[in-house]
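Severity: low
Component: inverse-folding endpoint
Summary: output formatting inconsistent between runs
Steps to reproduce: submit the following structure tokens with default settings.
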């Protein structure tokens, strides 16, 4: 098979591509515009396989998509703007990339009768209370502009299936962690900040819950859905890894041997979803996928990666991105209430 993988220079896309080249005989074409989040170092060495090609271009550009899709058998769309905080300060690019991009890709896939897989997210379902789970049948109720743009793409996938008969499937996964994640997301930001002796900015009361999964398990789930998923269906992807943000902080600081004093409670994110938790029974029972990475081992490996590959993230954290981060962090500190007295894990 020859796969078009869009957004393959990002965190999850690159993991999927590395797995595909290592574990199958497939050919891969990556189409990626290399935004601030795209990084060719994530794909280093894959040319040697003779089964890998990189095309720089945007999924919103029909000509770039035409060039990249030539000879492919399926399209997997990982390309997106992905950071919720950025979607609050600059929503426009999220609509452009995350809605218009999938439309261009689906039109190209439809013309050639190719299978299309949309990499979506649990955030399309909105926020849960302390109990219950998101099912594939849960109504979409996104909170952030990021989540709304991803939900819009999911609806568009449904429309392309119903109206044009597109052979399409959707995956909806929880929060990923692992090597090569851009250090603006919670886990790599906190690991690298702790390594640098910087504060860890915990939003609100730090009790928001996410459903964590190792990126390699997510990539294997995507492969499973590509091969066995039923056209028209969405599949939740979860390893049952619910943890709140204080617990994540504690694990990171414990493994690194750093003090809780590094934690700084800052102003909450507007519209901050309280809890995500997915029911992935469909993926497990119908398609036979099972997660392989336990959280403790995955977290240790992730911390080892950031400890052993400082040049990978120090370059990112020294550039334009850090100007953005410092501005945002200063704003949150300025807006924050006095520090809550509670420390450590409160569930
Ligand atoms: P990322 O931000 O690390 O990478 C995104 C990639 O898309 C980058 O390589 C970037 O250059 C590329 N890109 C952006 N705009 C593009 C455009 N117009 N054309 C071509 N390429 C473009 O993201 P990620 O964390 O790897 O997420 C990948 C996908 O998985 C996204 O669709 C995201 O919504 C979804 N997802 C992410 C998570 C998570 O925890 N990170 C969880 C569930 C779903
Ligand atoms: P994030 O990694 O941005 O993923 P998402 O918002 O898509 O779930 O954030 C994960 C959780 O961590 C979320 O509850 C917000 C919180 N968070 C902080 O407390 N501080 C931070 O600096 C960041 C980036 C996130």
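Observed output (run 2 of 3):
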């Amino acid at each position: 098979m020859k796969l078009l993988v869009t957004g393959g220079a990002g965190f999850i896309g690159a993991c999927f591509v590395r797995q595909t080249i290592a574990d199958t005989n497939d050919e891969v074409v990556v189409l990626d515009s290399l935004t601030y989040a795209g990084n060719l170092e994530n794909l280093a060495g894959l040319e040697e396989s003779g089964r890998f090609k990189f095309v720089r271009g945007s999924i919103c550009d029909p000509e770039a998509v035409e060039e990249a899709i030539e000879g492919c058998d399926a399209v997997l769309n990982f390309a997106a703007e992905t950071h919720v905080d950025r979607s609050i300060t600059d929503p426009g690019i999220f609509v452009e990339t995350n809605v218009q991009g999938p439309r261009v890709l689906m039109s190209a896939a439809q013309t050639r009768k190719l299978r299309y897989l949309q990499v979506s997210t649990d955030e399309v379902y909105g926020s849960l209370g302390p109990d219950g789970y998101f099912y594939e049948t849960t109504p979409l109720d996104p909170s952030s502009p990021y989540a709304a743009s991803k939900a819009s793409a999911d609806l568009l996938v449904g429309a392309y299936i119903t109206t044009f008969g597109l052979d399409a499937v959707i995956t909806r996964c929880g929060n990923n962690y692992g090597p090569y994640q851009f250090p603006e997301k919670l886990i790599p930001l906190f690991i690298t900040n702790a390594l640098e002796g910087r504060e860890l900015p915990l939003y609100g009361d730090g009790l928001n819950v996410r459903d964590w999964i190792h990126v390699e398990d997510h990539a294997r789930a995507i492969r499973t859905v590509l091969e066995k998923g039923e056209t028209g269906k969405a599949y939740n992807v979860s390893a049952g890894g619910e943890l709140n943000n204080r617990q994540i902080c504690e694990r990171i600081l414990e493994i690194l041997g750093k003090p809780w004093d590094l934690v700084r409670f800052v102003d909450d994110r507007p519209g901050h979803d309280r809890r995500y938790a997915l029911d992935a029974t469909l993926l497990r029972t119908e398609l036979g996928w099972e997660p392989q990475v336990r959280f403790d081992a995955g977290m240790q490996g992730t911390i080892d990666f950031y400890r052993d590959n400082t040049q990978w993230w120090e370059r990112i954290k020294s550039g334009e991105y850090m100007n953005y981060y410092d501005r945002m962090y200063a704003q949150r500190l300025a807006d924050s209430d006095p520090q809550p007295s509670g420390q450590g894990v409160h569930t």
